[in-house]
Design a protein that fits this description.
Blueprint (H helix, E strand, L loop, with lengths): L7 H4 L10 H5 L6 E3 L6 E4 L3 E16 L2 E2 L5 E2 L1 H4 L7 E5 L2 E2 L3 H14 L3 E7 L2 E7 L2 E3 L4 E3 L2 E17 L4 E5 L14 E15 L8 E7 L6 E2 L2 E3 L2 E5 L13 E2 L9 E8 L5 E11 L10 E5 L2 H7 L10 E4 L2 E10 L2 E9 H8 L4 E4 L8
Antiparallel strand pairs: 1-26, 2-12, 2-19, 3-6, 3-12, 3-14, 4-5, 6-7, 6-8, 8-9, 10-11, 12-13, 13-18, 14-15, 14-16, 17-18, 20-21, 20-23, 21-22, 22-25, 23-24, 24-25
């Protein structure tokens, strides 16, 4: 039951097709919290392609399989116990699970002793307990649970910002989800390294392309991974990574300061060289509280269109700069119009990184008009 390696940002970048008007998709009524006091904040925009390796805070159930226990009978103890894809197994018989290799040893011991296992797992943030007895696979001569599981993931994405004063970074602009279950990965540990783009599969209508990249200098860790939220991954970083277009921090724009009009995105389309490409921000949402899909952008730079066809998978997290300020990050591509896509406001990424803090709460809801 080995852990599987998969490219979560290449195959899952929250891709969607436009089915409503931009305004209907974006204009969400604000909630209660208003951020303020951080309008002089400065960070260093990224744009570098990064390799990411994470281990989940437990062992993730990603599917069921049947075990042949006799010529006439097949069963899955895991499925019969009520465990479902997306459940995160925390412990077995009191032993904390931090890698899949532990599961095989515990299953073999219980199987030989003909004893049930007590599994503590999380589903939708709540802990539950399941009991199951391993079954003996008559073909492979091993004891099994009848579950497909994994504990690790790897892929590539784009660095959004580095905040030198706080020593933290943000990347991706959207949550990492498991490619089989669609559930967010609860990060136990992880790190990011340099990555180099080797080729581009161009986007076409109905078929979003992707960056193909390899990890580079894996022994030289850029930073750790501490959290995985709706707005990306975040962790500690001690220095500005190589190939940055900026050596000094630039101002950031709060969500209410972003305007429709020309802007640039920073991203890599060849090797490790970060480049600027022109875009238009064509719609801006009214958001006073964190929400995804904060703006709609359209690629206008003929160089980028010629190279990629528009927005491609692996471009998630590419910084958006407008009038000399960092305003957001690319997050999604419209499948049926790959020259267009969504972005999130940098304010929400900075909040999740701990750089921006909540300051004021109002006891009533507001409605945008």
């Amino acid at each position: 039951m080995p852990g599987l390696l998969f490219a979560f940002f290449l195959s899952l970048s929250g891709i969607t097709g436009p089915s409503q008007t931009y305004a209907a998709l974006l204009d969400n009524p604000p909630d209660q919290t208003v951020l303020g006091g951080d309008r002089d904040l400065k960070v260093i925009p990224g744009g570098q392609t990064i390799g990411v390796k994470v281990k989940s805070a437990g062992v993730l159930v990603v599917g069921h399989h049947l075990i042949e226990v006799s010529q006439q009978s097949k069963l899955s103890p895991g499925e019969n116990s009520g465990l479902l894809p997306g459940d995160l197994m925390i412990s077995i018989d009191g032993v904390k699970l931090d890698e899949v290799s532990k599961v095989a040893k515990l299953v073999e011991r219980a199987g030989k002793a003909r004893e049930p296992l007590t599994i503590v797992y999380k589903r939708a943030g709540k802990e539950h307990t399941a009991k199951l007895t391993p079954a003996y696979d008559r073909n492979d001569k091993v004891w099994r649970l009848g579950l497909y599981i994994r504990d690790s993931a790897a892929g590539v994405g784009t660095l959004t910002f580095y905040a030198p004063e706080q020593g933290v970074y943000g990347a991706l602009g959207h949550v990492i989800t498991d490619m089989n279950t669609g559930t967010p990965i609860v990060v136990g540990s992880g790190h990011i390294v340099q990555s180099s783009v080797t080729s581009i599969s161009k986007s076409q209508d109905g078929d979003p392309g992707e960056k193909r990249a390899t990890f580079y200098k894996e022994s030289q860790v850029l930073g750790n991974v501490e959290s995985n939220t709706d707005f990306g991954i975040f962790g500690k970083m001690t220095r500005n990574p190589e190939h940055s277009l900026y050596q000094e921090p630039i101002p950031v724009a709060m969500s209410d300061e972003v305007k429709e009009g020309p802007a640039q995105i920073l991203t890599v389309v060849d090797g490790q060289q970060v480049e600027r490409f022109n875009v238009d921000i064509i719609h801006v949402a009214h958001q006073d509280t964190p929400a995804t899909k904060g703006l709609v952008l359209r690629i206008t730079d003929p160089r980028l269109i010629d190279k990629t066809g528009g927005i491609v998978q692996g471009m998630s997290g590419s910084p958006i700069v407008q009038n000399g300020r960092l305003v957001g990050a690319v997050t999604h591509v419209f499948v049926n119009d790959p020259k267009s896509g969504y972005g999130c406001f940098i304010e929400w990424m900075l909040k999740d990184s701990g750089v921006v803090h909540q300051e004021h709460t109002f006891p009533y809801n507001l409605k945008a008009v």
